[in-house]
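User: structure tokens for TATA-box binding protein, please.
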Amino acid sequence: VPLNLNYIASVLPNSFYDKHKFAAITIRIDNPTCTVLLFSSGKLVLTGSQSWYKCLHASLKIVEMLRAYIIGVDFHVEDIVVQNIVGNAIIDLQGNRTLNLERMYNEQCSKCTFQKSLFPGLIFRPDNSPVVLLCFESGKVVITGGKCVEDIEIGWRRLWPVV
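Assistant: Done. Predicted tokens:
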């Protein structure tokens, strides 16, 4: 039986739901800080957790909240699956230097996408890696798409020689 998202959003604190914009309730929680999407199927998507344990803690906190506000529904955590780990790094560029994204693209064009007029960063896809690295002239790098911390570390190690 699908959950009544209109009702849940009306009684659950720190929640927002507009079925015309998105098919889930957005719930913001503190301690641990994260944003939770609750779908009518009962599935949760948690974003912004700093670790697996904080994700678990947030999941249990949401279930506790749902049990307190929604009577007659058995809420529980069945499984937790990590879908995407995001990391970030800052390359220390001495002085007023910037990352030369044009050079990186020219040297690694088979692994890169760079169209400055569409997106200011270079998109680097290392061989045999699930991660994508977004590199910016400022030296900031966003690493996304990993299923574990090791994926993030391997992606970073493959980018470093290119920098």
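User: Anything notable?

Assistant: The longest strand covers residues 140-146.
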